[in-house]
Design a protein that fits this description.
Distance between the termini: 59 Å
Helix content: 40-55%
Number of domains: 2
Amino acid sequence: MAMIGNPPIILLDEPSTGMDPQAKRFMWTVISKMSTLRKKSTVVLTTHSMEEAEALCTKMGIMVNGRFRCYGSSQDIKDKFGTGYEVEIKITWPTEIEAQELGKSYELDMDSRIELDSLETSLRSMRMDSLIDTPQYEDLEFNVDRDGSISMVALCQWALLENSGLQVYEALDKNASGCKVLEHYNNFFKFRIERGNKSIGFFFGFVEKLRRRINFEEYGVSQTTLEQIFNSFALEQNLDDEGKKRRLTVGRSTISKKN
């Protein structure tokens, strides 16, 4: 009803709340046609969905404690307030042949099975001590069979995969201002790197060159999402609220002492 007659300004407050995905998409199409295609109306909407904001808005602002913290296009906000880039890499799983070659180079018995207590010794014999102190080493227990052991071939495959992931991490950390592992399961790795003064194009080229040395199935480099930027501002609001509560508590205790 608010849109009948193409009014010059339309104010929408959380318009997609409670809608199912199909109805939400239909509403987005209607709003987009009115504001972007026909250019009959200016639509101002409030939302907590960054997906909705990015789909509909040419300009957007984020408010914290009733004050605008940023205003501009989606790309402007990402460039100014983004914390870095995210790199997703899916490393090709090592084959049994590669595992056999690794084991033979260190004269290991590839037909043997390794008990949990002997995993560190086996990794040290392959000169992969750096994998022992990593969080991924604890996950190695999930690859152990029911009898409490793991085949030497499977251990060598795991070691080759984790060593490749470690090489990627070290290479990114060396060429960025900082690197952090966000996710890792099986052969999938997700890193967050501080951009510093380097563009996303630089890291695309860097990862492509790295692919020649380490075999990837696929990879991607992306900017910080609007959702992450919004959450970082929301975190500042939570911290401000906690500070106000502390000051209020201190003030009350001071008054009670005076009384």
